[in-house]
Amino acid sequence: MLKKSINGRVYGAKMTAAEKKAIEIEIKKQLAEYDRKHAMELDALVLWVLHNEFGFGEKRLKKFYDSFAKSIKELTDHYALDDSDDVWICTYKLKQAGIDIEKWHEESGL
Predict the structure, then answer these.
(1) C-alpha angle 91-97-57 in degrees, rounded to nearest 5
(2) Across the strands, what pairs with 86?
(3) pLDDT above 70 coverage of the chain, percent
(4) How big is the CA angle at 11 (ends 5 and 15), to the nearest 5 degrees?
(5) Domain extents for the chain?
(6) CA distances to 25, 66, 82 from 72, in Å
(7) Gap between the Cα atoms of 69 and 91, Å rounded
(8) Which of 13-22, 29-38, 51-60 has the lowest mean pLDDT?
(9) Taking a C-beta distance cutoff of 8 angstroms, is the pair 38, 56 a contact?
(10) What b-and-e string marks burial along 51-70, b requiring 16 or more CB atoms within 10 Å of the CB?
């Protein structure tokens, strides 16, 4: 890292490409860890909606939960290890099926 200074006072730094890459990787790892830490609350929200709005019972909720938990792990691993900003495969597959979740997201105002 090259420090930028004037009259002996440091006011910034210029990182090498390798340093920038290392920081990006670390940020992605930390974001994945943050997601894992808060996964139970998100899971509970999804399960509650499925139960309350669509009548899912414990058996169907457990089956959904197991499948969803596996997919969430794959998603966080994908973003922690991959250095691209490509959309995840589920977004792509839904779009192929005519379901544009990006459009729904925009329409929801969230």
Answers:
(1) 80
(2) none
(3) 88
(4) 85
(5) 2-108
(6) 19, 10, 15
(7) 17
(8) 29-38
(9) no
(10) eeeeebeeeebeeebeebee
